[in-house]
Amino acid sequence: MSAYAVFFKESTHDQSEVDAYLENVGKSFEGHDAKILAAYGEQQVLEGAAPEGVVVIEFPTTTAARAWYDSPAYKAAAEHRFKGAIFRVVLVEGV
Known about the structure:
Blueprint: E1 3-12, H1 15-25, E2 35-39, E3 53-59, H2 62-69, H3 72-84, E4 85-93
Antiparallel strand pairs: 1-3, 1-4, 2-3
């Protein structure tokens, strides 16, 4: 069953760290079966507060998603994300 990692960027406090994350995150997908479905596109907020940005990544399974998220390559990139912005991240199974 497909799984989706959904990233909500709530607020940025160090754009240089966010830029470093964006420069490095692409390499973390090497060897992982992932498809970026949306990345910082135009939003139409229907309810609640608007995040600064949204990213949706499709994986074949939750196991595959966790293998990427827990990988050393992603953890190294994510350190910049943690320093640069506040995100909410959820992993949700498809139907």
